[in-house]
Amino acid sequence: MPAGQEFIKHEFDEAIAFQETVVETADILSRKHPVADAKKLLKGQLATDKRHLAALRKYGKAYGATGKREEVVEAMAGLAEETRAKAEQEESEAYEAHAVLLTLKRKQQDSADAVVKIARAEKNDELRDAAKEMKREIKAGADELAKSLADFAVRIATKG
Questions:
Q1: Is residue 77 within 8 Å of residue 17, measured between CB atoms?
Q2: Relative to the CA of 136, which of 77, 105, 128, 159 has its CA 20 to 30 Å away?
Q3: What pTM does this model have?
Q4: Can you tell me the distance from the alpha carbon of 142 to that of 110, in angstroms, rounded to the nearest whole number?
């Protein structure tokens, strides 16, 4: 595992790659999701997700980060691709894709915490403030997505 500036580059590469997967998954689910309210929520969050991706690319560029996918990102991105590809087949498959998207957002929320602390250590107020705002927005979006997932679970569980 790298250290110093190489570690920061690694963290930004990972955050960019995860956010690319968030955007791809949210975009597809905003069209394929079988629940109208979830589609609307995903469409509403997509602009924020894209803005976060642009910010991560901007701040990561200073460290040479481009969104290189490593092992953890590859595994999660593969799972996201697999579940979203099946999202139209049946509700339980869409539920799984919805859950994977929530997991990706929670991962980004945790990463934002690390970026805030790294920015503080580097005395980079601009990055610190941007990461704090991103963390707040990701948490709010993830909380909404979690509520939507719970409602979706009830819908599936009470069918039949």
A1: yes
A2: 77
A3: 0.93
A4: 12
Cα gap 63→86, rounded to integer Å: 37
- Residue-wise DSSP of 75-116: HHHHHHHHHHHTTTT-HHHHHHHHHHHHHHHHHHHHHHHHHH
Residue 159 is given by DSSP the state -
Name residues of the chain where pLDDT drops below 50.
none
Long-range contacts of 143-150 (CB under 8 A, 24+ apart): 144/41, 144/45, 145/41, 145/45, 145/98, 145/101, 145/102, 145/105, 146/102, 148/35, 148/37, 148/38, 148/41, 148/98, 149/95, 149/98, 149/99, 149/102
Residues 15-58 have pLDDT tens digits of 999 999 999 999 999 999 999 999 999 999 999 999 999 999 99
**Position of tokens 């610190």?**
128
- Nearest 10 degrees: CA dihedral of 50, 73, 30, 105? -70
CA separation, residue 82 to residues 42, 70, 158 (Å): 19, 18, 26
Q: Which structure tokens are listed for 74?
A: 């590859």
CB 105 within 8 A of CB 138: yes
